[in-house]
Here is the input.
Amino acid sequence: MSQPNDQIAGWDSVIAGLRESGALRQDAALPEHDDALPWSVMILQTIAAWIAAGLLVAAVVVPAFIASNESAWIVCGVLLIAVATAVMRLKRQSFFLPQMAVPVAIAGAVLVGAGLKPDSWELPAFVLALILFVLSGHRLLRFIAAGVMLAVLWYWMTPWLGRFDVSRQELAAWNWQLAPLRNLLFSLALWWLWAHPLKLFGLGPAVWQPVRHALLWFWLGAQLWQTTVWHVLIRVTINTDQWLAPNGLWLAYRLLDLLPLLLVVFITLRRNPGLAARVWPLAVLLPLCVLSPALATAALVLWIGLAEGRSYLTALGIAAALAGFGAFYYYLNCPLLYKGLLLMASGIVLLLVWLFMSRRAA
Here is the structure.
């Protein structure tokens, strides 16, 4: 009779015993072992990690600022970045420590930037974000760094923002010169990163995955912000000459924003001609996309989600479309009666499209 063994059997020995006893077939496929934490645990650990990082950063930053020495700020910032990078590189199996290193690295970059005291913030912010992106392998930090770099690029391509006190006419002239090109580049980059394999320039998903997520969220946010700004170009006046100039410019600007969407739809339908019969009734929604910068971008995201089978993009595109139309409706500088008529017309158009597509499906 075998002696009892108090040691806990390993997973392999348990499986071998089950197979020997016949309880498990010899050719049975075992489930893959998943070390991923539940999402609720990940959220709690992330919150705890950022709180702990805040206390650690405060212990370093407060004495440095009390000293009022820019060189000390730079040294402390470099040390924080170095420590955070080492933790993210060496502790990949842990979840808590790399999450804690993210705010530490960000604080280090802020300290270095404050110590340099640059004349303008854009170039140091871009360089420091690029350094964090290259040094770290953490997806969240790369997402944040990519968002900062995209924001700086957008700022560079928006020359009137926060730097000049110009009249509306000068603002419109600059808008014609650079903003359409900027919007075209950002929208086409968004489509390319989400519709093509992430193997650009020999770099894999570890690099481009956070970039495309950062571009998605930043560009939708920027377009929603523009919706709250460019509504001032729409003015309803009795004089036709006073109405035509600003509103004609606004309409031309919105039509230019539709170019990426139309190009992407054309490319998709060219690859899959049979899809045209199903989606062509949706063309009636294009006038709605003219109303707001956010609507055109939201429609682009929605189309990419439907064409690529990505429910994440589809849901985000729908949410952005609702937010864009709501922001346009709220900030529209028109009497409430005109707003109501616009809302009623939009509802009628959507209802007719739904009825038409329902009859075709039946």
Residues 39-67 form the longest helix (29 residues). The chain has a mean pLDDT of 78. Residues 157 and 181 are 9 Å apart (CA to CA). The radius of gyration is 27 Å.
